[in-house]
Amino acid sequence: MMSDKIPILRVNNITKSFGTNTILNSVSVELAKGEIKVLIGPSGGGKSTLLQCINCLVLPDSGEIELENENIDFTRKRDLYRLRQQIGMIFQDFNLFDHLTALDNITIALRKVKKMGKKEARQRARLELDQVGLSDKETLYPAQLSGGQKQRLAIARALAMDPKILLLDEPTSALDPTLIGEVISVIKGLAVKGMTMIMATHQISLIYNLADEILFMADGRIVEQGPPAALLTAGNKSKSQGFCDRLNELAEVEG
Amino acid sequence: MPHALSVVIDSLPYLLQGSFLTAGIVVSAMFLGLVIGILMAVGLVYGNRFTQYLLTAYVWVFRGVPVVVLLFLFYFGLFTFLGLKFSAFTAVTIVLGMTTGAYQANIFKGAILSLPKGQFKAAIGLGMSEIQAIKSIVLPQILRMSIPAWSNEYSIILKDSALAFVIGAPEIMARTQFVASRTYQHLSLYITAGIIYFLLTWAGVLALRKLEKHVRIPGYSHHGNQ
What ipTM was predicted for this assembly? Predict the structure, then answer.
């Protein structure tokens, strides 16, 4: 699956505590170009904090992050800004800019961060809107979009920055079941194009179909990891299989 | 024509000239307060603990001391002490601006805190600096949601501006008192002054309400939208 094995992202022994509460306990992850890793596990296991530590939205207490062999100095603002520009983040609850139209949600960072001209930024934004099927919504504000449209817009906003890696924090969890499909198909499209991703999700179809590797997190550690073929087979005693079985049961109850 | 009415009519141009000065004081003070308020709110929310203590102390001083005391303190005390020769107009503008700044700081602080935190995070996540995120994402939203509270502040400052007469700024109140003390038509003249203040309040609040509608974002509510 992986075209080259050299990791573009190295996360080494990241630890994060809030007060006396240790959220991440010496977590390490490596990611190769085009690779997709899926984080699963119980809530409170540290998935979200790990993702936010990777692009330094939450600063780790200790550990190292290396992007394309460049070590990030957590105390240097410029390092942090550069890292965040290159690693896109998709949030569970979208976090769109409520005062901006769909188009301007995308252009704002292009203009302020990438210093693009207005015209160029708009062109780029329209391209991204088209990619996620929102071409006809560019003048609408977030409040006028459905949940699925909001998340697709958030994805377009992140992609416009040409990120080397995309982090997705439960991208479908806040969505109405009927709207999940449109977001899943956008994410699958990204996978086909070779986007490098780390995604926390409870969405069985994303776990089974997209993951090159599954990372099972609990109590601030990665307690199990491996390709789906190894962890997710019927009757497997792995924690990941047990977890997915429960997700499946839940889906059947709901369905 | 009753004497009272003719006095009012004769002195009206003189009183209305004062309303230009009043408007000048209020507009400058509100603008100064806006700048102070925004900077302080940002400091109160995002600043370190030392900054927060300092700004909170400022807010308490200006909330706890009557405007007229501040006016005397600054005009006759502080400015003289510092050797600053400010006009009464400038002194009133500074004192009212700093006072409303303290109140506006609290208005904007509340607005920032009511904004969903994720938007700031998303902006930072796209590579914006904290200052860029505050300028492009936080401020445009909190300024919009603060307009109603701000128009309240406008009406308060407009009325407080009448205190400028105590240090001799020739605004509406000072001019009214001047005419009244010569013509003894206190009742009709102060009614006139009251009406002028009322009309200024009404016009300003109406204009701000128009502005609020004009900049309103479709479907937007104060607490995000989900």
Answer: 0.91
